[in-house]
Write a structure and sequence with these properties.
With 495 residues, the protein is α+β, with helices and mostly antiparallel strands. It has a single domain, classed as Outer membrane efflux proteins (OEP), CATH 1.20.1600. The chain is built from ten helices and six strands, in the order αααββββααααββααα. A four-stranded antiparallel beta sheet has the order 1-4-5-6, with no helix packed on it. A two-stranded antiparallel ribbon has the order 2-3. The two termini are 54 Å apart. The N terminus is likely disordered. This is MdtP family multidrug efflux transporter outer membrane subunit.
């Protein structure tokens, strides 16, 4: 019992000495000299709109927001683009790559076991540490100077994450993965809004061609009438040339509009990643009524609904974890290495009991003088984090600006549309009056037809306004984050 107690006492003293030695070495660690306070994120008071920006309808976009237009063609085109667009494939691949990075970082704190097999044919130096083995004395077991050494066994290693360095690296990698998931949603929003704007551009041009064709028919009749009058000497040829110039201008507009439709279609095909025949036929349909809506307040709700802002917040949070990892590198690291197997200078003796080898190597690594490497690493992590914070702040300001500008444009377009409709009513009254006079025989058919041209011109202007309204409505949907909705904005915890 006394011997056992003595051994326990010796063991306890050794442990105390080991702990005391570690404590005495801690002040000798490399010191943090190059760190600064983190930058601050933008305050919520700046995530708001001016009081004079509002629309008749309030609310946020819903998931699959494009279905509110009840257009099967638009639904099919957006679904095709989201499934096949190269940018979507790239975004999904980036997410998969980030997940692989997380798995890779996690392996750093896991138990590593590997099989080891080594064959070494070596010539021993007579003047080296193994000099006696260079002699050939079989009686002593020395058969030098050539030996064939063999090693077979299992090696293992385990890093003990005392200060959380590995955990911080894992958290940083997970943050990047979450950021790329949000970026994927941002790409989906980008693609869906681009498809919708191009599609409505095509439909607007379809209607414009119809109006131009109607105007062209009137211009053609007018040209024929003035040409006949000029041929009879009833009027100078100048009037004929004027209406002929108007007809040519209309024809030029028709050619330009049809070319723009083709360009829109090619842009849509490239966006959807479709081949020459991979895009379905787009049939003309009436433009939908405006359904733009603007929320009463933005504040933190905008952060949860904008995928690009969520991505930026995740990148910032990930940068904080990288700072934690950089700080943990200043403290001692501890690992355990082990080996179990066989080791012999002669292959014939390799698998004998006497050749069995067991190694257990606990290791403590304490940074003392590193030439400033750890401080440089921390400084780089801190400055990179500060840069991301400022980029995030600018992204928030840009998001609020996008909502404000688009909302104010829609307000102005709504007012312009109302005025344009009143203008059409006025010129329509004039047209109807001239047509009534023609039906009573008080004026010519030519005058009645030419009275339609101002109405068509105003209808073209109204069509352009309606196209702009739809384009701005889609832009507002994009500015508000589409149907994206995070559970809650990522809570930033500067460190």
């Amino acid at each position: 019992m006394n011997a056992r107690a003595h051994r326990r006492g010796v063991s306890w003293r050794r442990r105390c000495l080991c702990i005391a030695w570690m404590a005495s070495m801690l002040p000798g660690c490399a010191l943090i000299r190059h760190d600064s306070p983190p930058y601050t994120e933008i305050p919520p008071t700046q995530i708001s709109l001016a009081n004079d920006i509002h629309l008749a309808r309030d609310g946020w976009p819903a998931a699959r927001w494009w279905t509110r237009y009840n257009d099967a063609q638009l639904d099919a085109l957006i679904d095709q683009a989201l499934a096949n667009a190269p940018t979507m494939v790239i975004a999904r691949t980036r997410v998969a790559q980030a997940k692989s990075d997380v798995d890779l970082v996690r392996t750093g704190s896991s138990l590593q076991v590997s099989a080891i097999a080594l064959l070494d044919r070596e010539h021993v130096s007579a003047n080296g540490f193994l000099g006696p083995f260079a002699q050939n004395e079989p009686a002593l077991g020395l058969t030098g100077p050539w030996y064939t050494e063999g090693v077979v066994g299992l090696g293992a290693s385990l890093n003990v994450d005392i200060w959380g360095k590995q955990r911080a690296q894992i958290a940083a990698s997970i943050g990047v993965t979450n950021a790329r998931l949000a970026e994927t949603s941002a790409v989906e929003l980008e693609i869906s809004t681009d498809v919708a704007q191009i599609y409505f551009g095509i439909q607007t041009n379809y209607q414009l061609v119809d109006l131009l064709n109607e105007s062209h028919e009137i211009a053609q009749f007018s040209v024929q009438a003035h040409e006949a009058r000029a041929a009879r000497g009833l009027e100078p040829r100048t009037q004929f040339e004027e209406v002929r110039a108007q007809q040519l201008a209309i024809e030029r507009q028709i050619v330009s509009t049809q070319a723009q439709i083709k360009q829109f279609r090619e842009s849509l095909r490239a966006l959807a990643g479709a081949g020459p025949d991979g895009l379905p036929e787009i049939r003309p349909v009436a433009l939908p009524a405006s359904q733009a809506a603007l929320p009463v307040t933005l504040s933190y709700e905008l952060l949860a609904r904008r995928p690009d802002l969520q991505a930026m917040r995740w990148y910032v949070q990930s940068s904080f974890d990288r700072i934690d990892s950089a700080k943990a590198a200043f403290y001692p690291s501890f690992d355990i290495k082990a080996f179990f197997g066989y080791n012999a200078l002669h292959l014939a003796d390799l698998f004998t009991h006497a050749s069995r080898q067991i190694n257990l190597i606990p290791g403590l690594y304490l940074p003392i003088f590193d030439g400033g490497m750890l401080n440089a690493n921390l400084s780089g992590a801190r400055q990179g984090s500060n840069l991301l914070i400022e980029q995030y702040n600018q992204a928030v300001l840009n998001a609020v600006r996008d909502v404000a500008l688009t909302g104010s444009r829609l307000q102005a377009l709504d007012a312009e549309t109302d005025l344009q409709k009143q203008r059409i009513e006025s010129v329509t009254f004039t047209r109807d009056s001239v047509e009534a006079s023609w039906q009573r025989g008080l004026t010519s058919q030519l005058a009645a037809l030419e009275a339609r041209q101002p109405v068509i011109a105003e209808q073209v202007a109204l069509l352009a306004l309606n196209g702009q309204v739809l384009s701005q409505e889609v832009a507002l949907t994009k500015a508000l984050g589409g149907g994206y909705r995070a559970d809650a904005p990522v809570e930033l915890k500067p460190r």
